[in-house]
Amino acid sequence: MIVSKPYRAPRTTSKARALNGVSRAPVCGSGGLLRHRAGPGATLDDAFAVLDEEPGSVPVTRHPARNLRGARITLDPAEGSGYYELTRIGSEVMVLVGNWAYNHTRVELVPGDGRIQFYFKLCGDLTLLVSRTEPLRLNRPSLLVYAQPAGVDMQEWTAPAALERSVAITFSPEYLIENFLTARSGALPELALASGHAERVRYMRRPLTASMFELASKLVDNPFEGVLRLVHTEAVTLELLCAAVNGFSTLASAPNEEYSDRDLRCLNAARDLLMRQLSPAPTIRQVSRAAGMNETSLKHGFKALFGETLFDFSVRCRMQHALTLLRERRMPVARIAESVGYSHQTSFATAFRRHFGVSPRDVRPVKPR
Q: Fewest CB atoms less than 10 Å from the CB: which of 45, 59, 175, 201?
């Protein structure tokens, strides 16, 4: 379902504000790191323009052959901890990775630039004022897709000390239509086609599937440096967009459920337990008791919120841990099987092959001769 909320605000272009020194009415709290550097009400285009015009202020990495460029901007310790990482892929796609926490409430104006954004929320507590009367709170793993026309502004604010881990991918409606949309893309075509002449913010919100969560985490925790970091960001960004667009075809008819703060705490507690307790793997009854939620609500809410069943998530965590042990340590396979909840090595090998398509011994590092 597409939700549209009217919020029209008169504005000048961000370039005109930068040239004339004009800013909007002041807002309380920190103005945000990007707007601090690029000017109040600046767009992502403006942020990249500042990086290009002032290359000495922040180191910019470039990959000319693939038309990639990116930079990391670190928070001043007086404001908080963490960083923003900006990457531009070609002329169309802009990626903003956030991994930060502000010491105080951050309030920031987000100007409309006629683009579409896929916002992948991993953790944190951020609120978008999409209308004058309805704030949209993002405080759990979720995907928010919104079209914000030029001239239509929003405000966003984050809670103090809230660790924000997120990935925002921004591009034009034409880019989305030409490269990703199919006849089975749910309501995405409607949003993309309407964005060019709308006078309100239009948005859709969906649970973050396990695949999207894993891919977005790869972008936040990018292990590479230099040009390899840019290539990795490009590759994972495209894969993440594919997963998101595909998700709309499979979730088009799914209800968009809301959960109370207590429900969210219980479901996240269940997820944390499954990630920590790999051997023995807890039963659903044990998870239910530990999380403080009845089994029916737990199973339904976990699948809706995280995109996979309790059992599938438990198996994935255990198999990923086993893979790490097989690659990094010289433990016998039998001991690795025990460490992820399997009492018999053959049962573990069968489950491992079913999950990865290869046997445990196939992923062992090759010993030098």
A: 59
